[in-house]
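Record type: monomer structure entry
Structure origin: computed from sequence
Chain ID: A
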Amino acid sequence: MSTPTTTVDGRTARRSRGMDQVLDAIIELFTEGNLDPSPEQVAALAGVSGRTVYRYFEDRNALVRAAIDRHFEGIAPLAQVPQLGEGTLEERIDRLVAARVRLFDAVGAAYRAASAKAPTDELIADRVAFTRAALREQVELQFQTELDALDASPRAARATAVELLLSLDSLDALRRTRGLTLEQTTAVLADALTALLDAPVRTTTLSTNHTEH
């Protein structure tokens, strides 16, 4: 005969499994390009009733937000770069590119959905902003030697260029829009970063008394 505690534990486990099915279905829909799925679409893919979905989540926004939050919870371990800031430029480029490609392959679909929802959802906007800031800081630390060798203005410009190259938006353009393979994406980013970080600063001289007619 089951005890009350066993019954409660069983219900909790079933609820947890059911929520996992629903959240996994949302991520699958994100991957297919549906960035704002309805509870009914999620229910159909998860193999549960629409009523079940609404029992877990109060509305469509809560449903999408929960999926994005759960997916982003695992971002920190995936984004980690061993020996941050250490080694030759080539070694540091290779390690950071590998980490970003790995990260995008894991959270790219959720990131697209989060970016699409951010303008109308403050909590998701904060999540996206935090993620971008953390990845930007990682760039600064990984390439601090090269960046600190520059004066303030070219340093800011070059840091911005490196950040954009390694952003999840850039990975999305290369992997999904351009259709590059993982190996091709890695090669493109490594080549571009090498050219950017190992290049002399470009200077432009403007003449204040030269006017073309």
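Annotation 1: The chain has a mean pLDDT of 85.
Annotation 2: DSSP finds eleven helices and no strands in the chain.
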